[in-house]
Every structure is written in structure tokens, then in C-alpha cells.
């Protein structure tokens, strides 16, 4: 799958976030990269930032949090285009959940691990 097609899937997954949650996402930029960091080459996505639950009165004037979705590791675990769509949706929700302060243990319980 081309990078452009993968980016469309990420965009569509973001569009599927319910409006009541999307409206609460604050100061976050979403990126697509081909490869995960060499230290974790199978990583599908990552949230880097300060979750909403940890932001206090001091929060302001900071660079946006980052959500990065990694194309090649995702494609490597998927057999069909439908698998890629499903995995992108799961990964996008997983990383947005981190923005809301939800940890990996809870995400696994909810089926977004």
C-alpha cells in the first residue's frame, strides 16, 4: 500500500472519532511515518506528549503533542487491505486514548491493545 493511500486511511480513522471526543482533543498533531524507531521496529503507533489528565494550570505555550502512525510495521502484520483498515483504526483510537490519559492495560481490556 502506498504512503498516500495509508495516509488516507489514517485521515479516515480520525474522521471516525465521535464528535464529542474529537472536540476534546487539544493541541495534538498526527503524523504518518514509514518506519518505527530502530529501538522498537514493530511499533504501530506512538503518542508523545502530556495527556489531558496530567495538564495543569501551568500548561500553555507548548508544542503540540504528537501521534505518529507507522506504515511499514502495520503493513507487515496485515494480510489484506481490510486488515490494514482495521489495524489503522485500532491504532489511531489507541493513541488518541493515551492523549486522554488511558493506559495500555485499560486499552487491552477494551480490545484496543
From TrEMBL:
SUPFAM superfamilies: Metalloproteases ('zincins'), catalytic domain. InterPro entries: Zincin_1, Zincin_1_sf. Gene3D superfamilies: 3.30.2010.20. Pfam families: Zincin_1. This is Metallopeptidase family protein. CDD domains: MMP_ACEL2062. It comes from Kribbella lupini. It comes from the Bacteria.
